[in-house]
Amino acid sequence: MELTIEQALQQGVSAHKEGKLQEAERFYQAILQSQPAHPDANHNLGVLAVSVNKADSALPLFKTALEANPKVEQFWLSYIDALIKEKQFDNAKQVLEQAKTQGIAKEKLNVLEIQLTPITQVNEPELALQNKSLSLSQKRKKSSEQKKRKKATKQNLKTYNPSQEQLSSLLEHYQNGRFSDAEKLAKFITQEFPKHQFGWKVLGAVLQQTGRSVESLIPMQKSVQLAPQDAEAHSNLGATLKEAGRLDEAEASYKRAIALKPDYAEAHSNLGATLRELGRLDESEASYTRAIALKPDYAEAHGNLGNTSLELGKLDEAEASYKQAIALKPDYAEAHSNLGATLKEVGRLDEAEASYKQAIALKPDYAEAHGNLGGMLQELGRLDEAEASYKRAIALKPDYAEAHGNLGVMLQELGRLDEAEASYKQAIALKPDHAQAKHMLAALSGETTATAPLDYVEALFDNYATKFENSLVDNLKYKIPKVIAEMIIKDSKFDLLGSVMDLGCGTGLFGKEIKQFCEHLEGVDLSEKMLGEASKKKIYNELIKEDILAYLSNASLNFDYFISVDVFIYIGDLSDVFRLIKSRNKIGGKLAFSTEIYDGNDFFLEQSGRYSHSKNYIEDLCKKFGYKLRHYETQALRKDKNEYIIGGLYLLDF
Fold first, then answer.
1. From 629's CA, which of 31, 98, 130, 515 has a CA 20 to 30 Å away?
2. Sign of the alpha-carbon torsion through 25, 28, 33, 38
3. pTM of this prediction?
4. Among 379, 436, 427, which Cα is nearest to 403's?
5. Which residues of 200-236 are buried (b: 16+ CB within 10 A; e: fewer)?
């Protein structure tokens, strides 16, 4: 039976791997008779030629493969390596520069580029012009001495530099992923030729590739010391420093690389990633934009720009960046997953689900994509599927603390409290400062803490910001901002309320209701993204990102009203709030707020993770800090699991 092209290729590759080179060659040649430009057959035949020291025969084969499919990284590497073996250094340099524009892994190109760096020549002493006047015997003696010096010079070069065969071998080991062999040879070269940069550079790269970034630091530093003008060496050092968490030093290394090579797109992109981790998002955005300007088809830079845009709340721009990254690199699983996160943020859940599933199809072991899909399915109420996604994420990455924590929340929603407790404990074991798991475990076990962790509250509302109003107002029938505004206006004897501080202003739902009745309106909130939504309404004179207690402790307070709508459900102990407002505000005023009702005498951390407060507790605070209860009523706050949560609305004088 006649073989198809694909079958012939598979059999050729199998024979090649088994060392049956003649048999492999027959299969590859048969393919080329039918399809002379077949890229894989040409490339593999070239590899065979190189393996029997016929790099010259391999060159046209590699070139044909590359012209047929320039997207395959190995075709570039094989072609450049063969050009170097044939000492066609100028051609190799040209092809290497072309490879850089195709997104070929820079660390692999770095190794090849070193091979094209001329070995420093030892200067030979200049011969004096008076040779012409020497006698025949003197000339013979001089010629003999000159030959000895040349021989010594060659010997010195051998002493100070590894052989071309050793360098080629090291390069071949590294390129083919034989990292153990590459490491052994690199260590040998660094020991025998400690002043030759190439061994240090490859050793650092191997250690980084094999997950030993701490060990890679010394070789990377040595590489930079030996070749301080090598931009790639500085960039590689930056990557190692970034992975070690030494972000300021990483920034300096990337900037040095860029100073040496201003058009170094990868260094600009990596600098952007470092600046993003440092929280300098505007600078990060600028670095990514510069990288893309230098290299418009740089898929990873587009993807990373999307990440920064997402953090900046620029969701349309983030979506556009991810889509551009995917257009350039359709198998870019991370971009598909991050596009899913962006679509989820804007409520396009069906599209988000499709993006997450595409990421998983491209990269089935992508734990984060499984975890993100779980979160989205949980939001859609498809809890059985969400559970399966979280568990798959954990199976792929057992130390994935966020997946354990989120699984705990979902199991709690299902009423499987023992399992939820176990998930929270596992999340905390993996990440002792896991704010969500610690808070929810306390809620589940009946431990009433003083307040919810700030990290937990900030993350909760950052994740909720873009869909907050739609979820709360439309789905949960939330009307409390309007009710409290009406309560305050009805109580006031004046047309205008004066100055108002909206504590925990969120997206500005209360501000929208009260704006027309106050002379000055400010808001404070812990969530940057909630404040971003509030700023779009253009109703606040000032918006401040800060924790409420920190704000009340440090700001200059001069307000007629302090309002806190559905905020005290994340603060258990309210004594500091009452104390600071009464003691630090420059004038007397009013405090209005809502709470969930607790039947006991104090406050209580509910299993939901929210605090409830009794009327007795609020009255005790009033007595302690000099407030007067002016108005109290109960109201249905919002729906939770199809039932209304009953709360108390308070208006106090101070």
1. 515
2. negative
3. 0.68
4. 427
5. bbbbbbbbbbeeebebbbebbbbbbebbeebbbbbbb
The conformation of residue 132, written as its DSSP 8-state character, comes to: G
Question: In Å, what is the CA distance from 624 to each residue of 188, 314, 627, 651?
Answer: 76, 46, 8, 17
- The first and second tokens of residue 313, run together, are 């709340």
Q: What is the pLDDT of residue 335?
A: 97
Q: Phi and psi (nearest 5°) for 551?
A: -65, -50
Please report the pLDDT score of residue 104 as a whole number.
Answer: 82
Tell me the H-state helices in 18-135: 21-34, 39-51, 55-68, 73-85, 89-100, 106-115
pLDDT of residue 578: 98
Q: What is the pLDDT of residue 6?
A: 87
Count of alpha carbons within 13 angstroms of residue 131, beta-carbon side? 10
CB-neighbour burial class of residue 91 (10 A; exposed 0-12, middle 13-18, buried 19+): middle
Residue 134 located in a structural domain: no
Amino acid type, 352: A
Place of tokens 């990377």: 220
The confidence score (pLDDT) of residue 154 equals 45
Q: Is residue 526 part of a domain?
A: yes
Find, among 622, 332, 16, the residue nearest to 613 by Cα.
622
Q: What is the pLDDT of residue 137?
A: 58
User: Which letter does DSSP use for residue 651 in this model?
Assistant: E
d(CA 545, CA 526): 5
Q: Which of 274, 306, 338 is the last residue of a domain?
A: 306
Q: Is the dihedral of CA 53, 54, 60, 65 positive or negative?
A: negative
Proportion of the chain in helix, strand, coil states, percent, rounded to 5: 65, 10, 25
**83: Cβ–Cβ under 8 A, 6 or more apart, which residues?**
59, 89, 91, 92, 95
Tell me how long the chain is. Answer: 654
CATH number of the domain to which 193 belongs: 1.25.40.10
Cα distance between residue 199 and residue 191, in whole Å:
9
Total structural domains in the chain?
Answer: 2
**Looking at the domain assignment, is residue 452 inside a domain?**
no
DSSP of 605-643: E-TTS-EEE-HHHHHHHHHHHT-EEEEEEEEEEEEETTE
- Dihedral sign for Cα atoms in the order 525, 528, 529, 531: positive
Q: How far apart are CA 284 and CA 271, in angstroms?
A: 7
- Whether 605 maps to a domain, the answer reads yes
> Which pLDDT value is given to residue 123?
31
Q: What is the dihedral of CA 140, 144, 145, 146, to 10 degrees?
A: 100
Query: Regarding beta strands 643-653 and 499-503, do their DSSP bridges make them parallel or antiparallel, or are they unpaired?
Result: unpaired
Instruction: Mark the ranges of the chain whose per-residue pLDDT is less than 50.
Output: 1, 118-134, 152-158
What is the predicted pLDDT for the residue at 147?
Answer: 56
Buried b (16+ CB within 10 A) or exposed e, 501-535: bbbbbbbbbbbbbbbebbebbbbbbbbebbbbbbe
Q: Which amino acid would we find at residue 605?
A: L
| Measured distance CA(59)–CA(197) in Å, rounded | 28
CA–CA separation, 13 and 27 (whole Å): 9
Q: Would you state the pLDDT for residue 138?
A: 56
Q: Are 193 and 187 in contact (CB under 8 A)?
A: no
Helix residue ranges, H only, 380-416: 383-396, 401-413
| C-alpha of 399 from chain center | 18
Domain with residue 611: its CATH number is 3.40.50.150
Task: Choose one of 306, 336, 369: the last residue of a domain.
Answer: 306
| Residue 474 DSSP code | I
